[in-house]
């Protein structure tokens, strides 16, 4: 009121630049990833080249279900081990609790340059463990948070340095043929991918 009437007010937050690195780009730094997911990358690149040349021939693109055929546990574990630094946080987006639990077990046995503090973030995980995700990493450890899309907007983790996004999530779809809803794996939208990447910004 008073002297401030009509004055513009700007409310915002400073964002840090985020660099996006795609899976195929990681192969130059981690050649062993090609054993786990090289075929997936080659198939997608070939499909995009054919589409650009107008030679699609009605072929479908890579589906979210194809991701399950990739050795994602090995891919994620190798990538986490590569980027892990003491005092930093790696946020990994996964489709659901099953994938989160399985990857957590594998990461516990992953050899990295620093010890890994593996935490799970999901609505079905006890609140105590969810709260630990918001605390700094244990001394000398790299904090690795395995999360569903709950960390996309609902929870802000302050110390995220790296985001690994598989680009898939689970959502309800109505099956017209069977006439009921099913929980299925589908691609995330570009907006969601941008939002997830922003967790490190």
TrEMBL record:
Could you tell me one molecular function GO term of this UniProt entry?
Answer: helicase activity
All copies of domain Helicase C-terminal, residue ranges: 75-201
Q: What is this protein called?
A: Helicase C-terminal domain-containing protein
This chain's source organism reads Hemiselmis tepida
């Amino acid at each position: 009121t008073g002297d401030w009437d009509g004055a513009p007010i700007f409310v915002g937050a400073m964002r840090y630049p985020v660099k996006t690195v795609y899976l195929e780009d990681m192969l130059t730094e981690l050649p062993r990833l090609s054993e786990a997911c090289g075929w997936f990358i080659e198939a997608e690149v070939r499909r995009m080249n054919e589409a650009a040349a107008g030679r699609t021939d009605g072929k479908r693109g890579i589906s979210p279900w194809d991701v399950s055929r990739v050795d994602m546990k090995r891919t994620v574990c190798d990538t986490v081990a590569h980027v892990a630094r003491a005092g930093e946080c790696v946020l990994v987006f996964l489709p659901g609790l099953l994938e989160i639990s399985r990857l957590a077990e594998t990461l516990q046995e992953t050899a990295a340059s620093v010890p890994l503090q593996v935490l799970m973030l999901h609505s079905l995980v006890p609140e105590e463990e969810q709260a630990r995700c918001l605390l700094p990493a244990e001394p000398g450890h790299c904090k690795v948070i395995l999360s569903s899309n709950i960390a996309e907007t609902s929870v802000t983790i302050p110390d995220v340095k790296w985001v690994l996004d598989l680009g898939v999530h689970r959502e309800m779809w109505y099956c017209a043929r069977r006439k009921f809803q099913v929980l299925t794996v589908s691609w995330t939208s570009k907006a969601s991918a941008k939002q997830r990447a922003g967790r490190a910004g």
